[in-house]
Write a structure and sequence with these properties.
Layout (H helix, E strand, L loop, with lengths): L3 E5 L4 H12 L3 E8 L17 H14 L3 E5 L1 H17 L6 H20 L4 E3 L4 E4 L2 E4 L16 H5 L1 E2 L7 H10 L21 H9 L4 E4 L5 E5 L26 E6 L4 E5 L6 E11 L9 E6 L6 E9 L2 E10 L7 E6 L6 E12 L1
Helix pairs in contact: 1-2, 1-6, 3-4
Length: 360
């Protein structure tokens, strides 16, 4: 059945091929580029940055080749409020947020999707590496590029109008397809790191917005090892840049094991101090639309790539609690935990939540 499909076109190879496949499928396709910066740069810095004039131009040229209408929609104010400001506030609280998760939750599949539906579109397509089967969100075929984790916050209703056209294809084949289609973005570098910090210097970005909030770095015995200018410069599991002189008395490296934003205290310890076995998540989202009925065996992922452990999860007092079969290290409040049901045909996303606590 022919649908009116809005395709989010970033100017990269993935969304470009996604748009092309929607056209091939016979849908009525319109491309849209999201202007997420109030002062976009003229050029990208290699694979860093986004929303540049170069990216918008690349997306427009692809749309011209495909023969589809193309628009640029300004979401800069919404992006600043829901993603950038949230990112800064989270770090100020001593948390470690994932801005890509928040962008998908608040911008692409909330603000953008809502506007698309209001304008009469039937679906929103993106270049994410993930698959949908009967409304169920699954991992992509290309495990190295799988983005189901950052989509794990989507609701049943949001998934019902989403399309991920490239999730069934490995990335190298996507580039080959783009080249065959004559798309100049075929060899364009992938974006990485945090899109709104093109310099890659997260500490400087946060420092300019949070300011100096001095505190102490202390060890397990309470000894002050160093002073710092703000907890926003640290994350759980961090080893370098602690401002302390060398390893611990036992000669082992020291890591950030806890952050207390109220007192400005950064705790450091041994690697084993990072191990956690229980995760408690707030604001759970269930991709089926309904909470799990009792404990379920699953796998929990706490980072976009890696941080995976078998677990038993259930809802307790409105929170999502996962008891891990084996410990994970470096888990911080503010991270997103995503629950998967293992499946040979592609692990299925069951639920997600923002980690409020990680206990040993």
């Amino acid at each position: 059945m022919t649908k009116r499909v809005l395709v989010a076109m970033s100017g990269g190879v993935d969304s470009s091929v996604a748009a092309a496949r929607m056209v091939d499928a016979g849908h009525d396709v319109v491309g849209v580029h999201l202007a997420l910066s109030s002062s976009p740069g003229t050029l990208r810095t290699g694979s860093r940055g986004c929303c540049s004039k170069e990216d918008a131009g690349d997306a427009r040229r692809v749309a011209d080749i495909l023969g589809i209408p193309f628009y640029v929609w300004d979401f800069a104010d919404r992006f600043k409020e829901d993603v950038i400001d949230d990112f800064v506030a989270s770090y100020a609280r001593g948390e470690t947020p994932n801005p890509c998760v928040r962008c998908n939750e608040k911008i692409k599949f909330s603000a953008l999707s809502a506007r698309a539906l209001a304008l009469g579109f039937d679906a929103l397509a993106t270049g994410h590496y993930a698959r949908l089967t009967d409304g169920r969100l699954r991992r992509a075929v290309d495990s190295d590029k799988d983005q189901s984790y950052v989509l794990g916050v989507l609701t049943e209703d949001q998934l019902a109008t989403a399309i991920f056209p490239i999730g069934d294809t490995p990335k190298p084949q996507i580039r080959e397809e783009a080249a065959r289609r004559g798309l100049a973005v075929a060899a364009k570098p992938d974006s990485h790191d945090i899109c709104f910090i093109p310099s890659g210097d997260t500490r400087a970005f946060l420092g300019a917005r949070i300011g100096v909030r001095r505190g102490a770095v202390i060890d397990g015995g309470g000894s002050v090892l160093a002073e710092h200018d703000g907890v926003h410069g640290f994350t759980i599991g961090q080893r370098k840049g602690l401002g302390i002189a060398g390893p611990g008395p036992d000669g082992r490296p020291r890591y950030v094991t806890a952050i207390d934003a109220d007192t400005g205290t950064v705790h450091v310890g041994d690697a084993t101090d990072l191990e956690v076995r229980t995760l408690v998540g707030e604001r759970p989202v269930f991709t089926s639309g309904a909470p799990m009925a009792g404990p379920v065996e699953c796998e929990v992922q706490v980072r976009a790539h890696g941080g995976l452990a078998a677990a038993v999860a259930e809802v307790r007092d409105g929170r999502l609690v996962a008891e891990l079969r084996s410990p994970l290290r470096g888990v911080a409040p503010g991270q997103t935990m995503v629950l998967y049901r293992p499946d040979p045909d592609g692990d299925e996303v069951l639920a997600s939540a923002t980690i409020a606590r990680a206990d040993a």
